[in-house]
Design brief:
Elements lengths: L16 H12 L26 E6 L2 E2 L23 E4 L6 E2 L21 H9 L4 E2 L2 E4 L6 H18 L4 E5 L3 H16 L4 E5 L2 H7 L3 E4 L14 H17 L5 E4 L22 H25 L3
């Protein structure tokens, strides 16, 4: 029968990262599925003053480039050695070389050649210069720890303390990988519960909404592009502006706004991310071996950091 309704393909919906990730690791032979953070409620703090008078910070899951930690450039394989396990902060008045080789972004459909798609500090600095808001003196890095307890009891309180030191009135939070989206949402919840409004800019809708984000700007893009398309300043400016409008206009918790921008017209990229049905047995075995090595590197990093 000819389709005369012009419906979108069934696969062209927000990617189910939790299901896809669970199926992927089960196929690799890990039979203890990860339990994602799940809350029914969500805290919410309205802006206390107009955005133009508010001090806004950036919270990111990107990592600073470390020359001694191997390949962290565009297209680099997953590099667990580049991870960090304690909250970091940086001066917003200068540029920083922040990368995402340490996390599981979509390496097939984005090459990580434009850091503005995951670390919008230069654009935030520009908007602050135009009077859109006041930029906090520091941005903060949130470790992408699979342990929700560490995020809730250690990292989120530390980020809150640093925000308070800087007189922060609101935060823009940008995750990249699946676990990053959970981490960012838990941080957002902690800040909101303690009086600081937030907006999460992300691509993993299922993870963020399950964890109960107060405000969420969803971009239906491959992971690693929460702030717009690579090398397209117009889409980056549009996306950040939309996030700020969500920050300003949300009337209650669990406010999700979806960006109208599309990555591609056909949406077929969604069929690739960790999709076992598109992998051969040889590819699955290769990935299992690679992941075992990654786990050992990450364990060593955690032990050095004292969080193993």
């Amino acid at each position: 029968m000819t389709d005369t309704m012009n419906f979108a393909p069934d696969f062209d919906t927000p990617l189910e990262y939790m299901r896809r990730t669970r199926e992927y690791y089960l196929a690799l032979g890990y039979d203890n599925p990860y339990r994602w953070a799940h809350y029914v409620d969500a805290p919410f703090t309205p802006l206390k003053k107009p955005l133009k008078d508010s001090t806004v910070t950036l919270i990111s899951t990107a990592a600073p480039y470390q020359p001694d930690k191997g390949d962290q450039g565009p297209g680099a394989l997953y590099n667990a050695a580049a991870k960090y396990y304690a909250v970091l902060s940086g001066d917003t008045a200068v540029d920083h070389d922040m990368r995402i080789s340490h996390i599981g972004y979509d390496r097939k459909h984005t090459t990580a050649t434009d850091s503005n798609t995951w670390f919008p500090l230069p654009l935030m600095r520009k908007l602050a210069g135009q009077g859109r808001f006041k930029l906090a003196k520091r941005f903060h890095g949130a470790p992408t720890n699979r342990s929700q307890r560490v995020t809730l009891e250690t990292d989120a309180p530390e980020i809150l303390a640093r925000c308070r030191e800087d007189g922060v009135d609101a935060a823009v939070i940008v995750p990249n990988c699946p676990v990053c989206h959970q981490t960012s949402t838990l941080v957002a919840r902690h800040l909101e519960r303690n009086g600081i409004p937030t907006v999460v800019m992300g691509c993993a809708k299922d993870i963020v909404e399950l964890a109960g984000a107060p405000r969420f700007l969803f971009s239906d893009f491959p992971l690693g592009n929460a702030c717009g398309k690579p090398h397209e300043p117009d889409t980056q400016a549009f996306t950040l502006d939309l996030a700020l409008r969500v920050l300003e206009s949300a009337v209650g918790p669990r406010t999700t706004v979806q960006s109208p921008l599309r990555w591609t017209e056909d949406g077929d990229w969604k069929n690739d991310y960790n999709n076992i049905s598109r992998m051969s047995a040889e590819e699955i075995a290769k990935r299992r071996a690679e992941f075992d090595k990654i786990k050992q590197v990450a364990l060593g990093q955690r032990q050095k950091a004292g969080v193993a």
